[in-house]
Write a structure and sequence with these properties.
The protein is α/β, with parallel strands linked by helices. The chain has a domain of 245 residues: Glycoside hydrolase/deacetylase (TIM Barrel, Alpha-Beta Barrel). It is built from ten helices and 14 strands. Strands 3, 6, 7, 8, 9 and 13 form a six-stranded parallel sheet that branches. α4 runs parallel beside α6.
């Protein structure tokens, strides 16, 4: 009898344990479904620039050397030039290519290590990353540029833009431009609206890259307009300010597309075509870029930047690239007529990273 009671007790204990484990697993599954699955950015400390101060040091001292910015003399590109040499670097993925057999993916994938070394090289050699607002303002005669200006642009809005590139750019206090495909919001492989808002507030200019990344030269007039208008309105609704820069998907462009981009209210656009690093207001709807390919040696990266822009000293001016704040932007749609009602946005839930 005693053995039967012990056996019955063990059975009840085992059943209770199994039930508890099942309840625990169910609870964990429910919690996981409610938690946001968007990755956090890589810890900046693990991507700290080589032989460079932390971003906290930049904020405290105003310069990489620790010298207060107010005591520095920032060299500026002489004002009044109609053409200026500014290489616009073009990146896509910042990752280790997961499939060695994918030739296109390998070409589009710059490893985190190589990206870090390239940013380190720019910093060591006195380059000043600017955004396209800065470049456009200069060629239109209303803004200034620091010496050796360069634009860092990243296409398509892949998730590693936020998790890998953004923390490193922020650590260097580098400006950059991110071209986002709005129809890709909600995909695990791409950035979220909340991440776009965060990056925009920390030195990353957000540009439009259409709704679905089509070949614009093959679309009907109505669909072309929708791709340009809806992506612009969606980003403006998220960011709260005008989105003025555009990038042609896969570089597909013709005079009809250029005219449509102008009519949609964009003020400049870039291609994927290689070409001169000299840019002007006249060609601002077809600015060429310097493609940075996966596995590219650092010496080749440096050589493709071309000649540095001559400069002149401007005493007592702090470098805008070291600013921790985003330049003030004009109010949404200022002087551009009534605001349009945004299109129906993709379902992405609350704006939480």
């Amino acid at each position: 009898m005693q053995r039967m009671m012990e056996h019955s007790h063990r059975r009840r204990t085992g059943a209770s344990l199994l039930a508890a484990l099942a309840l625990f697993a169910l609870t964990q599954a429910m919690v996981s479904e409610q938690l946001p699955n968007s990755p956090r950015p890589t810890n900046v400390a693990t991507l700290r620039p080589l032989n460079a101060p932390s971003s906290a040091s930049f904020r405290a001292n105003g310069s990489a050397s620790g010298t207060p910015a107010s005591n520095q003399a920032l060299e500026m590109v002489p004002a009044g030039r109609s053409t200026v040499n500014v290489p616009i670097l073009m990146y896509h993925y910042i990752r280790d290519n997961p499939d060695p057999q994918d030739v296109l993916g390998a070409n589009l994938s710059v490893s985190p290590r190589d990206f870090r070394l390239q940013m380190e090289w720019l910093a060591r050699n006195g380059y000043h990353p600017v955004d396209l607002d800065d470049l456009r303002s200069y060629v239109m005669g209303s803004g200034t540029l620091p010496s050796k200006p360069v634009v860092i642009s990243l296409d398509d809005g892949y998730s590693d833009l936020y998790t890998v590139a953004y923390p490193l750019l922020h650590a260097y206090q580098f400006k950059a431009v991110a071209y986002v495909v709005t129809g890709f919001f909600g995909r695990p492989s791409n950035v979220t609206p909340a991440q776009v808002v965060e990056m925009n507030a920390n030195g990353i200019e957000i540009g439009s890259h259409t709704v679905s990344h089509p070949d614009l030269t093959k679309l009907s007039g109505a669909e072309l307009q929708r791709q340009l208008d809806d992506s612009k309105v969606t980003l403006e609704a998220i960011l709260g300010h005008p989105v003025l820069d555009f990038c042609y998907p896969s570089g597909a462009v013709n005079p009809i597309v250029v005219h449509a981009v102008q009519a949609a209210g964009y003020q400049s656009a870039t291609t994927t075509h290689a070409g001169s690093t000299a840019h002007s207001a006249a060609d601002r709807y077809e600015w060429t870029r310097v493609r940075v390919s996966g596995g590219e040696p650092l010496a080749e990266f440096a050589a493709r930047l071309g000649s540095s822009e001559p400069s002149q000293p401007t005493p007592g001016t702090a470098a805008p690239v070291l600013s921790t704040g985003q330049p003030l932007r004009p109010p949404l749609r200022q002087g551009r007529g009534p605001a349009r009602v945004p299109p129906v946005l993709p379902t992405w839930g609350a704006l939480t990273p």
